[in-house]
Amino acid sequence: MLFAWHLPVPPYVHHHDDRLEIGLWLQGDDLPHQVMLRCEPDNEEWLLVMQTQKQGDYTRYQADLTLLAGESVRRYCFKLLWENRQQWFGPQGFSIIPPAQMAQFALEIPTLSPAWVADQVFYQIFPDRFSSSGLEHTVKDGSYFHYAVQRDVIRKAWDEPLTDENASSTFYGGDLDGIVERLPYLKALGITALYLNPIFTAPSNHKYDTEDYYQVDPYLGGNAALIRLREKTHELGIRLILDGVFNHTGDTHPWFDRYQQQTEGAYYDPASPHRTRFTFTADGRVLDWKGNTTLPKLDFSSQSVVDSVYQADDSVLRHWLREPYHIDGWRLDVVHMLGEGGSARGNLHHLEGMYRAVKSENPQAYVFGEHFGDARRWLQAGVEDAAMNYMGFALPVRAFLTNVDVAYQPIQLSAAQCAEWMDSYRAGLSHTQQLAMFNQLDSHDTARFITLLADNPQRMPMALVWLFTWIGVPCLYYGDEIGLDGENDPFCRKTFPWDESRWNSDLLALTQRMATLRHRSTALRRGGCHIVHARDEMLVFIRQYENETVLIALQRNGRGRCILPNSPFIPAGRWRCIEGYGKLVRENGYIELMMSAESAGVWRWFRE
Questions:
Q1: Active site includes 333?
Q2: Which residues are bridge partners to 189 per DSSP?
Q3: Which of 249, 316, 321, 448 is deepest in the core (most CB within 10 A)?
């Protein structure tokens, strides 16, 4: 039997100026005669013989990978040789077949990914529903006519129940000044970064139907309110990400102007200077987003669109990165769908242009895309720092704990199947990208996680522990921390109940503890990730960085027990429980974990 240990972090990898020192730990009664580090600095295979060193019960193999040549993404794996056979070792373990190029260990050196992102705890806010300042600018009943639904907008009282009637035109008066007032609450919660759903002028409450990319909606407080929010977040050390909707506009945007509020709109005038910004069929029909006629799709074959969105000096993406707003990055809506001719043609080309435009303004800006499906094509192309991690986190966690899939259809997933899903997906990402992936349990586009749990609300603490300890950046959707419920859109967009008697205080306290734990742990923010046990109802993984290892155990149903032999991933010595439930017993050469049903536990090992 042969065992191997490696993660793309210290103590297995050390960065020295112009080289990476890469180590592989092996143990067993059939060690290979030779181990080679396979890399491809310029897309061509190099095999480097690794030097051997005995370290206690393990044999360490080490080789240096030069950083003086090659692409910034350093992909590598290990080739093990015996007299008459060979094996390969990569992120998914041993294999007779060499790992595919995009399924190897990978580090980005140098990287365009912002260094600050991995250290954050994000909080997503739907502005109309989080907090209202009550200032005069907030929307009133009948403030304006909403052409898309052919009626005046509706203003409801904050605690008035939400219905699906007139969903997009019903407002509760949340605004940016309301967010400013609640920043002390967010700071106490442990939040260090905000992601806001769209705030630019638009007729709906969700504002994915942009009418003016250069003006914050006046009913949210206008540009001045964003400056106030930005100044206060800077003061508190809180980052700010805005939502960029560039696949489509709203049909009231002056470029399109379906309702002839302006004079040069493309909808009625074939000679309009804005006509090329959209794609019209021969019979005059405009191509839109997924059949939503109020959301005409922008045509990136138009130089006007390219200039407006990212290329010109005064483009939208550049504008908000500059003073006095100086936002910290962009979330890009349905980013995989934008392109030319009413389709996604040329998508990667334009996303590269958008990415480079953002980085030219601020190399440390964070750019992540919305992808409900597999985002690896875009991540591997280097056109975004990260993605909303539905496929690699939210969906497998949902399937394992709530037994429904992305379409809310039933699914049965064992711990082993869940582990395979999560491991196989992230094997295609560099460690740098994994650290920056945007992890959420739910969002404005999904049912609330606690609602999906239905008769198993006691699993919500398990989900929160998982969110804060899995590799990537945790993001709470407003109200997750107090047990706010809600079915899919629009009911996942309820107002935040500021009456504390309605809060789940246990969830709130757990969220605060987990945020603190993450802020204090380098392993949870920067460490490698490895699933060490996944069987039946129990899943156990570790996060490790240099001298710190954090072990996380999740037990779904029934009682669980597992034996984990001491290894570089499970060091011998004292383990301290730092959160949750469960029993960890140290024995000679192994640890034993015992978990009760629907529980999570977190233990920490640290070498002084």
A1: yes
A2: none
A3: 249
| Fold entry, domain 2-108 | Immunoglobulin-like (2.60.40)
Enumerate the H helices of 320-459 as residue ranges. Answer: 347-361, 376-380, 395-402, 415-426, 431-436, 449-452
Question: 226 near 185, Cβ under 8 Å?
Answer: no
Catalytic residue among 128, 177, 299, 370: 370
Q: 586: which strand partners?
A: 591
* pLDDT, tens digit (0-9, with 9 covering 90-100), for 558-603: 999 999 999 999 999 999 999 998 999 999 999 999 999 999 999 9
Long-range (24+ apart) CB contacts under 8 A made by 497-504 are 497/159, 498/131, 498/158, 499/159
Fold of 527-606: Immunoglobulin-like (2.60.40)
> What is the SS3 assignment for 96-113?
CCCCCHHHCEEEECCCCC
Please give the full DSSP string across 552-587, using - where no structure is assigned: EEEE-SS-EEEEEE-SSSS-SS--EEEEE--EEEEE
Hey, where are the domains in the chain? 2-108, 250-297, 527-606
Six-digit token string for 383: 């056109």
Q: Give one DSSP letter per residue of 176-187, joined into a string.
A: HHHHHHHHHHHH
**Could you read off the pLDDT of 318-344 as tens digits, one per residue?**
999 999 999 999 999 999 999 999 999
Q: Quote the pTM value.
A: 0.97
Asked if the domains 2-108 and 527-606 are classified in one and the same CATH topology, the answer is yes
CA distance 310 to 208: 18
CB atoms within 10 A of CB 495: 24
Active site residue 44: no
370 in Cβ contact with 331 (< 8 Å) = yes
Looking at 126-207, which runs of residues are DSSP E strands? 145-146, 151-152, 154-155, 170-171, 193-196, 200-201
Which is the catalytic residue, given 177, 217, 333, 423? 333
Closest to 448 in 3D by CA, of 402, 389, 413: 402
